[in-house]
Design goal:
The complex is a heterodimer of chains A (388) and B (724).
Chain A: H1 2-7, H2 12-32, H3 34-40, H4 46-68, H5 73-95, E1 97-99, E2 102-107, E3 114-116, H6 117-135, H7 143-161, H8 166-182, H9 187-210, H10 215-229, H11 236-248, H12 272-304, H13 309-333, H14 351-377, H15 379-387
Antiparallel strand pairs in A: 1-2, 2-3
Helix pairs in contact in A: 2-4, 2-12, 4-14, 5-6, 5-7, 6-7, 6-8, 6-13, 7-8, 8-13, 11-12, 12-13, 13-14
Chain B: H1 2-6, H2 10-45, H3 47-57, E1 59-64, E2 71-72, E3 78-90, H4 99-116, H5 122-134, E4 140-146, H6 148-154, E5 169-178, H7 186-189, H8 200-204, H9 206-209, E6 214-221, E7 225-229, E8 242-245, H10 249-265, E9 270-277, E10 283-291, E11 297-298, H11 303-306, H12 316-325, E12 334-336, E13 341-344, E14 347-350, E15 359-361, H13 362-367, H14 371-382, H15 386-395, E16 413-414, H16 426-431, E17 436-437, H17 440-451, E18 456-457, E19 462-467, E20 470-474, E21 479-481, H18 487-502, E22 517-524, E23 533-534, E24 537-538, E25 540-548, E26 555-562, H19 571-589, H20 597-600, E27 620-622, H21 623-632, E28 637-638, E29 646-651, E30 656-661, H22 663-668, H23 680-689, E31 693-698, E32 702-705, E33 718-723
Parallel strand pairs in B: 2-8, 28-30, 31-33
Antiparallel strand pairs in B: 1-6, 2-3, 3-4, 3-5, 6-7, 8-19, 9-10, 9-26, 10-11, 12-15, 13-14, 16-17, 18-21, 19-20, 22-25, 23-24, 25-26, 27-29, 29-30, 32-33
Helix pairs in contact in B: 4-5, 10-19, 12-14, 12-18
The chains are: A mainly alpha (388), B alpha+beta (724).
Chain lengths: 388, 724
């Protein structure tokens, strides 16, 4: 025990949150892959359980490795990663594997692993933006020397992700805006950027409604139309999700007893939150939400002790993108938000996104390691924050 | 302003950053609260609505259809089986099927449909589909019954190949019952469909054939797929058992065709044929044909089982047997046929020959089928005690239904003197087969009992019921009456029946190879609706019932032809030839009922001067066959202690010498074997198995082969065999 706890460094609470979410993940994925197992594996549900379990373990290993790296090192890594991520995104856009009509996946030659390039790009961009923001803190309010150099890679990467995966691009863009906000970029730039973004989005939506469309555009169009009109009869997924939530009640129907998993199209990824509510009830839902809020709270605590701007921005960026994604996924499940293809980080099944999420958590922990040293210097502030 | 910000100290920068972080944290906490509130709302405010919706859509109990058993002929041929068919429909209103897709592919789809199902043209298909789409039809019928290959082809067509959820093509599997032999015994095989009264063996053995449907709980999952939930309630279907009938397809084929030919030749309305094995009562063939409006004949109603009519002259046998059994008559008693007519009360009985037959014996009266003689004889014997006559007929089981498994057996009817409709003329008319009712199968069963030396057995349609190849129930012969009359009476009856063929009305059935015994019959029939006249004419029922070979009866058979509208209505002329065709075929193919040739005709088996028999010309072929034939014919043979598949038989002076032909060895060595002297059947078997292609020229035995024996075999090359 002693040795294990010696090996594990950084914020203990984050480790615990990760373990709790992983347990939920294993239970919910095992329960909800029944349909998938019936369709593709002759009813062998253990296939998906073991596969998912293996990925979670790999994720923990990656997280461990990532948290052992000194966080300042990521500043330099980001320069390399951004140069890898952008060409990969372009390749994916033109020759990626189509899943649900969106070319999001790229099969790595030689290894044969399929992965979503946007996950890599997301991490790369957050690290890169954190680097730029920290480097330019001295002239951060300037347009030419600070704002434009920072906003350019953001727009480039988000623009490349957007055609295949609107929601990921939106969450990433939002994360970057928040980072810039935290990084003290001039408010008027940010507000005008958001204004442009909203106007642009409206144009896209308007165009969608007017043009006869097919493929991915058609899917977006339908989703938006269904959400706007509130036509639940037409929106099968939302309807089934609500049934799952309603069935759950306060304490849920119990692990493995979900029936809605058979009706929801992606019970193991997009709608896993609904399945968790059905099986573990209102209580389970509250626990999951709390886990993400605790994760964010702990990160803020780390940040408040971060030795430098880069550490702050890096940890916040990693955490925010994860928590934003989680909130949106859950908001979709409870029909607060139109249906997107967002997974619930760390909980949903889906190989590569879990691995990249784990790396992001490892980076947060890596930052937390350095604050640990500072903690001894200023123990007073800790108490203060804990009370807040 | 910017200068001021720039000059902020490190701690101020930290503070500046932190309030921004807390702001974002606050916003995200609000989002979390929003999600929790919405969850609460769905669960508690809208909860009942969603939960009740869930009840209706989740699970259903689905039936799993059991596969119906097959019906086999006695030789193993399939008489009825279930074949999957597909009903194909088209959902023209599928959202995924946009105008763009529909318009781009409709021409091509119509074109392919017209090729696959050519009963509509391309433009008809096109119009029909466009119209269905305009009308909003979500279940438009394309084809009610497509087979598996058609379905496979259809799945490749434009629009169809997009599948159910993009193209809108819907297909449903329906297992259709098919009879591989089409019309052969179709009515006897019958059918068992929902909402229709079942018919024939399909109906009679439905409880075995149907099996037990299973059921299981299934859940609807995304994509409209039903997923079984394996639980304790699941019941596996139990497939139906197979039924092996007694029907012999080869005989059935002959019976069917002979009947169809004669019916059509005589422009008859309907007719039936039943062939029964004497000892067991097994029905080897049963054909029932009715003329359709187009003039073709088809299986429409099981006349043999269901049509109870006045049998006419075939009933004379029963009347005479009764009188003989009761000791009132002997075959040599005489009767005067007067002028060919006799009056009973106000009715006159006529003979078919004008002027009558003079004074004749009982036997002659039967052979010539004299109505006057028969009615006078029976009237003479029983006028004081008609009850005795009726009792005797009852005792022979003529008033009891046979109780066959096939539903709808016609009720026999024999009046009793106590009955209200018993009149003075009933007794003499009964003597000639009127005022009684019998089905063809009942008459046949009676004749079969005579052939079986008095033992009346029940007609049997089913041999056994099998389940996964194992016999689960077999049907032994059922005896209805151990002895219908004394042995002496049986012998008299047989004598009379043989006399009909040798000296009486059935002379046209005589032949030299085997003897037939039987009775012709012609009845003017009363049709329930039309009385004795039908479509302005008298309706007639021509029949022939008998058995063969007469000396050792193996099969009995009845032929009934109804309402022949041409003048040819005598039993021997209409029904007789059908009987003859069937009997010839059955006789020719049943070697076991043949008489020993030597016993039958010693003269033709000419002896040579020294008293020895000349050795017959024997052929070259399968050794087992040669041995069987030679031993069967009692011809001495010298096998030289050898074992070989193929052999050639060479006639010597007083013995046949069997010599080996090592065909298989030649072929193994890749050499063309010598097939000269073989039959074409054997030669084709040997040579084509060796990889050669055989062409035959002429007929008879093989006298020449185009590739010399011993040459190398080149697979696929042609060998010409000359026969003579």
């Amino acid at each position: 025990m002693e040795r294990i706890s010696d090996l594990i460094k950084g914020d203990r609470t984050i480790w615990i949150v990760v373990v709790i979410l992983s347990i939920f993940s294993v239970l919910a994925v095992y329960s909800s892959t029944g349909t998938l197992a019936y369709k593709y594996q002759q009813g062998n549900t253990e296939y998906y359980l073991l596969k998912h379990f293996a990925i979670l373990i790999t994720g923990l290993v990656l997280m461990y490795l990532a948290h052992n790296v000194k966080y300042t090192y990521y500043s330099r890594v980001s320069q390399l990663l951004i140069w890898i991520a952008v060409p990969l995104l372009i390749i994916t856009l033109f020759m990626g594997t189509t899943l649900n009509q969106a070319p999001r996946w790229l099969t790595l030659p030689v290894v044969g692993i399929t992965f979503q390039t946007s996950d890599l790009a997301k991490l790369a961009l957050i690290m890169f933006v954190a680097r730029l923001l920290s480097k330019k803190q001295s002239q951060i309010k300037d347009l030419k020397s600070a704002f434009l150099p920072i906003i350019f890679p953001v727009l480039l990467v988000c623009g490349l992700i957007l055609p295949a995966n609107l929601s990921t691009a939106a969450v990433l863009f939002m994360t970057c805006i928040c980072l810039m906000f935290i990084g003290r970029v001039k408010m008027q730039y940010l507000l005008s950027l958001m204004g442009i973004g909203i106007v642009g989005l409206c144009c896209v939506v308007g165009l969608l409604m007017l043009t006869p469309s097919q493929g991915r555009l058609e899917t977006w169009k339908n989703r938006i139309e269904h959400f706007v009109s509130g036509d639940t009869e037409g929106n099968y997924q939302v309807q089934q999700s609500k049934i799952a939530i309603a069935k759950g009640g306060w304490l849920g129907v119990g692990p493995g007893n979900s029936t809605q998993r058979n009706f929801l199209p992606h019970p193991y990824s997009d709608f896993i939150f609904a399945i968790i509510i059905e099986e573990y009830g209102f209580l389970g839902a509250t626990v999951i939400i709390l886990m993400y809020l605790i994760l964010l709270f702990r990160t803020i605590r780390i940040v408040s002790r971060s030795p430098g701007a880069f550490g702050t921005l890096l940890a916040m960026g990693c955490c925010l993108s994860l928590v934003f994604q989680a909130m949106i996924n859950m908001a979709v499940a409870v029909n607060l938000f139109p249906v997107t293809g967002m997974t619930l980080p760390l909980v949903s099944m889906g190989g590569t996104s879990i691995l990249f999420t784990s790396i992001a958590l490892g980076i947060i922990l890596s930052v937390s390691k350095s604050t640990g040293q500072e903690d001894t210097v200023a123990p007073k502030g800790r108490r203060k924050l804990a009370m807040a | 302003m910017s200068k001021m910000k720039l000059s902020l100290g490190k701690m101020d920068v930290r503070k500046d950053i932190l309030w921004r972080v807390y702001l974002i944290y606050f916003i995200i906490c609000l989002m979390g609260l929003g999600i929790i509130y919405q969850t609460f709302q769905i669960q508690n405010i809208e909860g009942d609505k969603w939960r009740s919706l869930a009840e209706t859509t989740t699970t259903e109990i689905h039936k799993i259809k059991a596969v119906r058993g097959n019906i086999y002929a006695s030789g193993g041929s399939l008489l009825a089986t279930s074949i999957p068919n597909y009903e194909i429909r088209f959902d023209t209103q599928l959202p995924a099927l946009t105008d763009e897709i529909f318009n781009a592919n409709i021409d091509s789809l119509a074109f392919h449909l017209a090729i696959l199902f050519p009963f509509k043209t391309e433009s008809q298909y096109r119009k029909e589909l466009v119209k269905a789409r305009r009308n909003g039809n979500r279940y438009h019928l394309i084809q009610r019954s497509a087979n598996y290959n058609e379905l496979k082809a259809l799945k490749q067509f434009p629009i169809c190949r997009l599948g159910r959820y993009r193209g809108g093509f819907i297909y449903k599997q329906i297992n259709r019952r098919q009879k591989p032999f089409n019309q052969l015994a179709a009515r006897t095989i019958g059918f068992d469909r929902p909402d229709v009264r079942p018919v024939g063996l399909e109906g009679a053995y439905a409880q075995y054939l149907r099996g037990v449907d299973g059921h299981r709980l299934e859940q609807k999952i995304s994509g409209g797929v039903w997923k079984p939930i394996h639980d304790a309630l699941e019941v596996e279907p139990e497939d139906g058992s197979d039924i092996v009938t007694t029907i012999d397809v080869n005989i059935q084929d002959v019976a069917h065709n002979a009947l169809a030919y004669q019916l059509s030749k005589n422009d008859a309305d309907h007719g039936c044929v039943v062939l029964m094995e004497v000892e067991t009562g097994e029905i080897k063939a049963i054909a029932n044909l009715k003329r359709s409006n187009s003039g073709a004949y088809y299986e429409w109603y099981n006349y043999a089982v269901g049509e109870s009519t006045e049998p006419g002259s075939t009933f004379k046998l029963a009347a005479l047997i009764a009188a003989i059994e009761d000791g009132h008559l002997t075959l040599e008693d005489t009767v005067d046929t007067e002028d060919g007519s006799v009056q009973f009360y106000d009715q006159v009985m006529h003979d078919s020959r004008q002027g009558g037959y003079g004074v004749i014996t009982v036997r002659e009266a039967f052979e010539k089928s004299s109505n006057v003689a028969l009615s006078k004889l029976i009237y003479r014997c029983y006028k004081n005690n008609p009850q005795q006559f009726v009792d005797r007929l009852y005792k022979m089981g003529l008033n009891d239904p046979l109780g066959v498994d096939i539903a709808g057996e016609g009720e026999p009817m024999i009046k009793k003197p106590r009955d209200n409709d018993w009149s003075g003329i009933t007794l003499p008319w009964m003597a000639v087969g009127y005022e009684v009712m019998q089905t063809p199968l009942q008459i046949l069963t009676f004749y079969n009992a005579i052939a079986n030396d008095g033992r009346m057995v029940k007609p049997q349609f089913i041999k056994e019921i099998r389940r996964r190849g194992k016999v689960i129930k077999s049907f032994p012969t059922e005896v209805l009456n151990e002895s219908i009359c004394s042995r002496e009476t049986i012998d008299d009856a047989k004598t009379m029946l043989e006399g009909v063929i040798t000296d009486g009305t059935g002379r046209n059935l005589r032949n030299s190879t085997y003897r037939i015994a039987g009775k012709t019959g012609t009845a003017r029939i009363a049709n329930g609706k039309y009385g004795y006249k039908y479509e302005g004419q008298y309706s007639y029922q021509a029949s022939f019932c008998g058995y063969f070979p007469a000396e050792n009866p193996k099969y009995s058979c009845i032929v009934v032809v109804n309402a022949p509208s041409k003048n040819v209505y005598y039993g021997n002329q209409v029904a007789g030839p059908i009987f003859r065709d069937i009997a010839d075929k059955v006789y020719a193919s049943s070697i076991e009922i043949h008489e020993n040739l030597v016993d039958k005709n010693p003269e033709s088996w000419a002896r040579r001067e020294d008293g020895s028999s000349p050795m017959p010309y024997v052929t070259y072929g399968f050794q087992d066959d040669l041995e069987y034939i030679l031993s069967r014919l009692d011809i001495p043979a010298d096998y030289q202690d050898m074992e070989s598949t193929w052999a050639v038989a060479i006639p010597k002076d007083s013995i046949v010498s069997i010599e080996v032909r090592r065909l298989d060895e030649d072929i193994e060595k890749g050499k063309v074997p010598n097939v000269i002297g073989m039959t074409a059947q054997d030669a084709i078997f040997v040579l084509e198995n060796a990889g050669l292609r055989v062409r035959l020229v002429g007929g008879g035995m093989i006298v020449r082969q185009s590739i010399k024996a011993g040459s190398k075999i080149y697979s696929g090359s042609e060998i010409i065999l000359e026969l003579s």
